[in-house]
Amino acid sequence: MQTNLMQADSSGILQAAQLLKQGELVAIPTETVYGLAANAMDGTAVEKIFAAKGRPQDNPLIVHIDSIEMWKTLVVEVTEDAKKLADAFWPGPLTIILPHNGNLAEQVCAGLDTVAVRVPSHPVAQKVISESGLPLAAPSANLSGSPSPTEAKYVLQDMQGRIPLILEGGSCEVGVESTVISLAGKKPILLRPGYITKEQLEQVLQKEVEIAHAVTHILEQGEKVESPGMKYKHYAPKAQVTILKGNSLQYQQYLQQHNHQGVAALCFEEDAPAMQVPFVVYGKENDPSSQARELFSALRKLDENGAQQVYARCPAEDGVALAVYNRLLRAAAFRVVQL
Ligand code: TXA
Ligand code: MG
């Protein structure tokens, strides 16, 4: 299959909508990462997503919609808490899980009785949804296991020959995937941290939001997870990544002691001037949003540079930085060294 890369202008959007209505896949930009979209009402189309990504069948997809009206056609009930969060954060990088009503293709929810939904704020994503008139199932547009794509060129790297169209929409502003919260149980649970923080969610809900254990912990053998995605290896570059917890000085000292062939650093902008080994920067030390924006492309650059062993400066673990830490932990397969 030939993969076309088109500008996300009106003819690109029209072409995307047409392909989606015909049951084909289209990669589209969103404010978080590029998504690999298919008609969420069409099981055969949704199966193509799993095939193109090499995604495990039991890992459900997020459905992208353009209105509360569309949401109501997919779920049993838009609860009061759900409405509050939607009013506060949509359109934007928040995904809300509620019990579904069976209208969607069953492959979307991978056999669960809940569905994850969000309204993206990226104008191109919005136009593709409204032009097609369809709810779009869309996971990140990477091969399963590799870093999520924040630029069209990275989608092309992974999806060339697998899908007919990629819409070029520039770099993604947020850079890490949406915050995922489940409102399907008794208490709200944060399943995946993102740009919308636990504190922001609690402020709007006026109640505590629990963080799922697997967000920052390696899964124990046989541990039950709230979100199937937690089971799988994620965001891993080809290089082996190790997170180093410590200050700038300790980090530099460790790198000097481990300055072997193939070693590279994944560091903050402030670390760069003193760096003695090859390095790629991901954001500024006290600016977690910049770290989120740059992390995934930095991981891909390390591979492009042929790095074999990457030592990453550890981000903070609260607010937006929790999203960065969560992705980096998975990229590093939970290898952390306390300096
Ligand atoms: O920002 C994003 O959310 C991006 C863009 C494209 O919108 N999409 C994205 O999708 O990150 P994906 O498929 O890569 O991640 C979806 C995550 C997975 O970890 C999956 O297990 C979880 O959400 N998930 C989806 N539906 C769920 C459900 N019903 N219950 C629990 N977890 C669910
Ligand atoms: Mg993904």
Please, could you describe this protein's structure?
With 339 residues, the protein is an alpha/beta fold. It is built from eleven helices and 16 strands. It has helices at residues 10-21, 43-53, 68-72, 80-89, 106-109, 123-132, 152-159, 198-205, 248-257, 288-304, 320-331; strands spanning 4-7, 26-28, 35-39, 62-64, 94-99, 114-118, 136-137, 165-168, 179-182, 189-192, 210-211, 240-245, 263-267, 279-281, 309-313, 336-338. The longest helix has 17 residues, at 288-304. It is globular and about 60 Å long. Magnesium ion binds next to loops.
Offer a few descriptive terms.
binds threonylcarbamoyladenylate, 11 helices, binds magnesium ion, eleven-stranded mixed sheet, 339 residues, 16 strands
